Amino acid sequence: MIKPLLFTYLAMVIAVVIMDLKHLRQAAAINRWLSYGVIACSIGIWLYVTHLNKTFFITVWLTHWIQRYLPLP
Questions:
Q1: CA distance 17 to 43
Q2: Does the pLDDT value for residue 2 go beyond 70?
Q3: Radius of gyration over alpha carbons of the chain, in Å?
Q4: 11-49: burial string, b at 16+ Cβ within 10 Å, e else
Q5: Is there a contact between 28 and 20 (Cβ–Cβ < 8 Å)?
Q6: What is the pLDDT of residue 3?
Q7: pTM for this entry
Q8: What confidence tier does 30 reach under pLDDT thresholds 50, 70, 90?
Q9: Cα–Cα distance, 71 to 40 (Å, whole number)
Q10: Which residue, among 23, 12, 73, has the nearest Cα to 46 in the 3D structure?
């Protein structure tokens, strides 16, 4: 499997955050939070791919969630 590549990716994300921490603090608030959001999403995807035993399809879950709020028959 590609777990060694995923661990390398996580290490690179941590290195980038540490190197860019000064610049992220000086950036506008929206840019800072967007950067943190993208990093959090990528770490979430990494955890999903490496640690879940059961397959979870986000589109099926979203469909069930959205159907409760849509006025469809």
A1: 13
A2: no
A3: 17
A4: eeeeeeeeeeeeebeeeeeeeeeebeeeeeeeeeebeee
A5: no
A6: 67
A7: 0.52
A8: confident
A9: 33
A10: 12
DSSP 13-31: HHHHHHHHHHHHHHS-HHH
DSSP-derived letter for residue 69 is: T
Check if the beta carbon of residue 40 is closer than 8 Å to that of residue 7: no
Residues of the chain with pLDDT > 90: what percent?
0
Rounded-to-integer distance, Cα 36 and Cα 59, Å: 24
Residue with token string 């469809």: 72
Q: How far apart are CA 17 and CA 39, in angstroms?
A: 9
Q: Which two tokens stand for residue 21?
A: 């921490």
Identify the sign of the CA torsion 66, 69, 71, 73: positive
CA geometry: angle 27, 31, 36, nearest 5 deg: 105
